[in-house]
Amino acid sequence: MVKRISAILVLLVAVFAVAPGCTRDSDATVATSVESSDEDDALEVALWGMPVVSFFAQKEASLRDVGAEPNQITYWSKPLDHNVKFLTPNNVTLYIASHIETFDGPVVFEVPAADGKLGIFGSLLDPFMVPLEDIGGENGIDKSQGGKILITPPGYSEAIPPGYLHVPSAHYNTVAGLRVTPVSFEADDIEDAISYIKKMKVYPFEGDSESTVYVDAGNKPYDPRPPYDENYFRLLDTYVQTEAHKPIDASFIAKLEQIGIAKGKKFMPDDSYAKAATRAWEQLQTDFRGIGDQFFPGAHWTTPVSPSESASQFTYVDEDGNYDWRSRAQTFHWAIWAPKHLGKATFYLVGQRDADGNVLKSSDTYELVVPPDVPAAQFWSVTVYEFETGGTFFDDVPTVAISSKDDDLVIAEDGTVALTVGANLPQGRPATNHIPTKGNGHWFALFRWYGPQPQLMPAAGSERWLMGDFTKLD
């Protein structure tokens, strides 16, 4: 049986893990530089492997920044702030992450039933961020009733006992990425949400169900972003050394070998890999400007992904077998996780241009008028992210988002909400309706609907709810 190599979590540049069950040939020679003839291949495998890099960067950060090991449950006991460098997080839920390893056999991830007051939604994802199953909500594997989810490793063929929700995986690594929505941000409601989280469990299939370790990350500095330097390819090497791969990825595994990353071979990256990673970053930043499809007529809000990507349940393989790994890279360049079923529990749009079609600048100030009767059964929110960081909160700002749950939100008599975003609070505008930005770069926003209603995408002939763009203020 494949044995777990716990040392893989350290992943220092000068220390390279060995694939479970195999050894390295220390005398083997392998390319350690990206030659000019290989630059296009290096860019291609960098884009193909973008979600893998994000996956293992998150895993490293959990150990390095908050001391969480595999098969433990990390949770954030308060809404996230700028210290937590998740990509495009929200600040209205409590986050949970559990990096699950099945090197030693199946693992149980146990989720309690939601009591109706709390909201829970998340997914189990493989290293390519392919959602294996959702948890919570009407389309979750547990149907919000909770249950014992049994995650099995590649090639597992034993019978699954009654009482388990089976999730087979083609990989040894899985992440459970979840969000719990408290009733409110009052201390008692936050405590109730934390109590619910601590009823979750993760343990070996034949192990002790009471052995779960919980790690409170609070809002300690935590940076799980993909590193766009030579460490980008080091994390791809981690995948190659420790994982099984799907047949659809075989050609990319071969290309990795051509640029110096091969199972059982020592990988010593030089500066050429950093240049290749930088090239990937620049390509992804450019691609982000063209993300998704226009949603509201006459406005620049776009969907986070195209309909085909959602239809594939984020496998990025269509019914004809076409593999859209480029779009996958574009998605996980800015998104941390993806659900298997998009738009059921939450729905969101990306705003990165003003009414004139210009990208949003951090040094300017803008207004967004949210119309009345927002079609969200629970609540809505607007969150602002720094473009140059790939989508994290701005550092050292007092407010990163505004939601309809905010007690001090100023609402006009006609039900509209005028928000301002930018470097300066306009004179006469309420500070409670303002999200500050910093620097001379750019920003973008996500508008989220929690419990989206049919008015967002009504049947033909039905009235549709519409929203306009950010407008630059003088």
Describe the 3D structure.
It contains eight helices and 18 strands. With 474 residues, it is of the alpha+beta class. It folds into three domains: 6-53 and 226-285, no CATH class; 69-216, Immunoglobulin-like, CATH 2.60.40; 291-472, Jelly Rolls. The protein has a six-stranded mixed sheet. It has a four-stranded mixed sheet with strand order 7-6-3-9, with no helix packed on it. Helix 2 packs across helix 4.
Strand line-up in the sheet with most strands:
5-4-8-2-1-10
Poorly predicted regions are: 1-29
Largest sheet, described in full? 6 strands, mixed
Q: Level of helix content?
A: 10-25%
Summed up:
It contains eight helices and 18 strands.
List keywords for this structure.
single chain, 474 residues, alpha+beta, Immunoglobulin-like, Jelly Rolls, 3 domains, six-stranded mixed β-sheet, 18 strands, 19% helix, globular, disordered N terminus
